[in-house]
Every structure is written in C-alpha cells, then in structure tokens.
Amino acid sequence: MATQQSLFNQLQQLDGQSYGAYKSLKGAYDFADFTLHIDHVQGDPFAAPSRVRVVVPQAIAGFPPEAWNSPCRAIALADYLTREFHQVAGSSQRKSGSGKSGLISIVRPSQAMLARSAARVTAEAVELRFSVGLPAFGRRIAGRQAADLLCNTVPDLVDQTLYYDALDPTSLSQHGQTAEDAEALRSQLAAQNLVAFVADGAVLPRRSGVDERPLADQAVPFQSPPSLRVTLSCPHAGEVTGMGIPRGITLIVGGGYHGKSTLLRAIATGIYNHIPGDGRHQVVTDPTAVKVRAEDGRSIAGVNISPFIGSLPQGKSTQRFSTPNASGSTSQAANIIESIEAGATALLVDEDTSATNFMIRDRRMQALIAKDREPITPFIDKVQQLYTDYGISTVLVMGGSGDYFDVADTVIAMDEFCPQDVTAQAKAIAAQYQTDRDREGGAQFGALTRRTIQPQSIDPSKGKRSVKLRTRDVDHLEIGTEAIDLSAVEQLVESGQVRGIAEAIVYAQSHYMTATTPLGAVVEAVMADVERHGLDSLTHWPMGDLVVFRGLELAAAINRLRSLQVRS
Q1: What is the pTM of this model?
Q2: Do 52 and 152 lie in a common domain?
Q3: Residue 175 half-sphere exposure toward CB, CA atoms < 13 A
Q4: Dihedral (C-alpha) 120, 125, 128, 132: value to the nearest 10 degrees?
Q5: What is the pLDDT of residue 553?
Q6: Quick one: pLDDT at residue 93?
Q7: Distances in whole angstroms, Cα of residue 537 to Cα of each of 10, 23, 152
Q8: I need a labelling partner for 175 at 20 to 30 A (CA). Which of 310, 358, 436, 531 fits?
Q9: Are 342 and 334 in contact (CB under 8 A)?
C-alpha cells in the first residue's frame, strides 16, 4: 500500500499537469493511524467532487463498545460523527482554485437520526465517506494545494472528528441514549393500541418552512390533556408522560394558526428518531404511518380506486385506473390505495392539502347532484370502513367540516398550541345538529387489488449510459430520461433518501421485478436486503451520499414513474 508521503510526493509531481492526470491517484494510502481510499476521481474541476473515504481501526479510534454494540447505538454514533465532520469541515472551508477546488463536504444531516452510507461503525473500524474537490487553476492540477488538502487538511479533520478522545463524551452518550429512548417509546405503541405518542414538554413548532430546527422563542411546550395522557417507559429518561393518539379515527380541530398542522407534521416526522434538543425527540409514530394528500397532475398506473370513485363518464372503469394527469380527487384516492398496497397501517391527512370534493359531500350538495351523477364517494363515508375492514387508522386535520364528528373516535382541539380532548363535546354537537346527509359507497370499503410491475417499463438508461440517475433536494429525481416529482411525498427529509430510492429502483428492477411479482413483495425484498446488508447492497461501488428510506417512499417513487406499466 502506498503511504501518506508517497501521495504527497505524487501530488507535487502532478502540479501543472492536465486535470485528467489526477486519475492516477485512485487507490489506498496508509496514513499510519488511518487508511485513505480515493475511490473515484472527478474528471474536471467543475464536475462532481471526488469520492474518498477514511478507515480508522477501532483500536485507534477508541470508541467504547457501549457506543456502538447495538444497531440503534451504531446508527446514532455514525450520525454523531457525520454531524461533527460536517460542522468542522464547513467551518474550515476555503476554496482554492477553479470549480469546486479545495471543497470538502459530507452528506448534510437533517434533524433526524438516520442510517447513512456516509459513516459506519463496527467492532473493527470507523469508516467515513466524503467528497473532495481536487484543486486546479483552470484545468491544470494545483498539486501543492492538493498535497496540502489531502495530506494535511484531511488528517486534521480526522483528528478532530473520528477519535473518541477528541469528542465530548457526554454529548456523544446523550446522542445514543436519545435514540434508544425513542426506539423504546415507539416499540410500545402497538401494545398501547396507539398510532402516535407526543411527550409532555415537546416543542413542535419549527423556525420556518425551510428551517426544521425548533422555534427558539415563544414556543409553547406541549401538554397532554389528562384524558389522553399515557405513561411510557424509556431505558434512560425513565417514565415519560404524554398524549397517546389511539388507533381508529382521530380528528385534530381548531382555529387557523392554532397548531393543527404543526401537530400533524410532528406526528408525520415521528417515524424518525430526532437529535437531542430538537424538541420532537420524544414524539414517536407508528413506522408505517403515511401522510397522503391531493396531487394534481401526477400519473397513475392501473390503480383500483373504485372504493372511492365509481365508473366515470363514458363508462370508464376505475378498477384499473390510469391517467397521465390526475385530478385532485383521483390522485388522493390513488395515493391512499397505493400507500395501503405498500404496507401503510395509518393515514395522516390534512384538509389544507386535500381535494374538497374527495373529503366531503354535504346534504345540500347531495340534494342538488344525485348520486348517480357523482362518481366520487367522499372520504367521510370510507374512513370508518378502512379501519373496521382493514385496520387502517386515520389522523385527520379538519377545520371546516363538522360532519366528521359523526365518524370520529377521538377529537382533539388545538387552542394556541394546547391540545384539549373535546370528543364528548363533538359527539354532543353531532347529536344536536343532525347533518341528515346520506352515507354513500356501500357497507364495505371495497376490494384492494395487488399490482405487478412490468420491468421493461422502467428504463434507467440515457444516451450511452446504461444507468443515469440524478437527484435534486428531496422532491425531484431523474431515472434515465424520466423525471419523478416527489414534492407530495412529504415524509422524505434528506436528499440522500431520494438518491437511495433512485438506486433502489434500479436494484429492484434488476433483482426482483418480474411480470408476476406483486409490487409490495418487490419492495419488501429490497428493504430486507438493505436491512441485512446496508445501503451498500444497492450499489456496485462505495457511495457516501445514500440515506435510509422506507419501503413506503420507495413504492411512492415507483408509482410516480410516468412510463410505469402494471398488471392487476
């Protein structure tokens, strides 16, 4: 193996040569306390930066076994190291030359603790993957700057972020304990018959729509109403009290700007563990809960939306409904059916992002437009059947229609961010003010139809490349020549999840998709491989920009491919 000194000398010799000569650097280098791997060298100073990784033997890194000897702890430690490296590298950035010269970056972490391919901790070693912009002036190698970057700056970053003795042991321990407590809380939901749990004292409001950090000033700590308060136990925090949201149908009501959607957003992100100080680190949700909404313009391929929408004009069937340009109601119906097909057991719905005609058809509209002229069966007439027939719970923000009082099991009113249990009052109002609307859609929810993906309908190639993938933030990915809009898949929180989903679609097509394998089974098989072998199982070479995702979001991305062809 080459050494640090030989790398330094080689870079000095490359000074002034054409940028392509950097390709000779690919390989491994012994830096005494760690090994530097240069896995991919960029072809141009303006191209995506070079991919490198460092591997520090655990005997040198010195992390005690209790910091990594469980899956939860190992993920938390890797998350902590990623954050430390991101912070230190970001604070010491200095561009030196053209393009991305001199820049060192790692996947940007959100407020959630997630498994990322950027870092891995085992009994043998600590591995960190990041990107380096190899320096150039114009398109000529800046060899002296590159030598300083790789042989001095990178070792300094390793010294500050990857050795136990260089870190705050209290902060590191708290990170792991917070993750273990959240896992413990979430594991108790099923036994308590709960969809979600929101701890007393939680801080739910965020700083802004683009800043997920907790609101610094004037945030009202969450306080459960006594009738919904439950007590759960944690291995480190001990007993924790808070509001339990039971399975069934739960309404969240209240005036505008009083915290309804804020509560629902916290529940939606409760599928993830959060870092200490986030304010939502003791807010946990059933891991199969899915936030669904209307999505005008999305494509739909062969989905049986007939439980919600009957035969359309001109006799068009909705049992295998396809369209390149869905309406609000058909898209919301498809989003619900697709989520259930992918394994969702709880739906999270906000009226603000729902199609009005999908949610409610009141008595006056029923009198004016006869049922035989209206194909849509509103959600209000199907939400109970979803639970009784299939065990699918719903948490619904509703500020505009009291008709839902008739079907709700629990009603929570938000008043200046303070929740109140108003179930009894809502039921009394429903009894006093009868809506007299007719229930529509029959006595059962209807059949759920499994679909199989036709593998040839997914083509990741573009030009001369057999696989071309591109991502942008958390709402857009491209596979081959096709773009997928993920802006309505609201529980994605990091762009690395989108990159992971892109790789998983290609992996699923090559490994598991057949003309007879149901989509749900394909997704389960892919996620089982990720669970057993990590995110690296999806790629042919080490990548540092993948972040774990759920099968539910993988299925959502596949379902939004405009080229998709299915069989029911």
Answers
A1: 0.96
A2: yes
A3: 25
A4: -150
A5: 98
A6: 67
A7: 34, 26, 33
A8: 531
A9: no
Asked which of 118, 143, 167 is the last residue of a domain, the reply is 167
User: How far is 122 from 542, CA to CA, in rounded Å?
Assistant: 16
Is the same domain home to 6 and 152?
A: yes
**Would you say 512 and 127 are in contact if contact means Cβ atoms under 8 Å apart?**
no
Kindly list the distances between the CA atom of residue 525 and the CA atoms of 120, 251, 521, 548, in Å, as whole numbers in the listed order: 23, 35, 6, 15
Residue 356, φ and ψ in degrees, nearest 5:
-60, -45
Rounded Cα distance between 18 and 265, Å, is: 51
Return the residue matching tokens 């001109």.
314
How many independent structural domains does the chain possess? 3
The tokens for 32 are 């005494």
DSSP 498-541: HHHHHHHHHHHHHHT--TTSBHHHHHHHHHHHHHHH-GGGG-SS
- 309 and 411 assigned to the same domain: yes
The sign of the CA dihedral 356, 346, 109, 275 is positive
User: Based on the domain organization, do 162 and 308 belong to the same domain?
Assistant: no
* Strand-pair category, 211-214 with 206-208: antiparallel
SS3 122: coil
Q: Are 446 and 390 in contact (CB under 8 A)?
A: no
Q: Hey, what amino acid is at 492?
A: L
Distance, CA of 211 to chain centre: 16
402 and 479 housed in the same domain: no
Specify the pLDDT at position 420.
98
Predicted pLDDT of residue 311: 79
236 inside domain: no
Which residues, 6 or more positions from 343, have their beta carbon under 8 angstroms from its beta carbon? 288, 520, 523, 524, 551, 552
Helix and strand totals (H; E) in the chain: 15, 30
Mean pLDDT by 10 residues, the chain (568 residues): 96 96 97 97 93 97 95 97 96 76 94 98 97 94 95 96 97 98 98 98 93 89 98 98 98 94 97 97 98 97 96 84 96 98 98 96 93 93 98 96 96 96 97 93 94 94 90 91 96 97 96 95 98 95 96 98 93
Give yes or no: residues 7 and 151 share one domain. yes
Query: At which of 404, 432, 460 does a domain end?
Result: 432
Backbone φ and ψ of 454, nearest 5°: -85, 110
> Which range marks the domain in which residue 347 is found?
289-432
Q: Identify the CATH number of the domain in which residue 399 sits.
A: 3.40.50
Tell me the H-state helices in 307-382.
328-341, 356-359, 363-368
Q: Is residue 35 part of a domain?
A: yes
- 348's tokens: 């999270």
Whether residues 534 and 424 fall in one domain: no
Q: How far is CA 20 from CA 24, 25, 45, 141, 173, in A?
A: 8, 10, 10, 9, 45
SS3 at position 6: helix
In terms of domains, do 421 and 523 share one?
no
CA distance 250 to 286: 14
| 310 within a domain of the structure (yes/no) | yes
pLDDT at 451: 96
Residue 191 falls within a domain, yes or no?
no
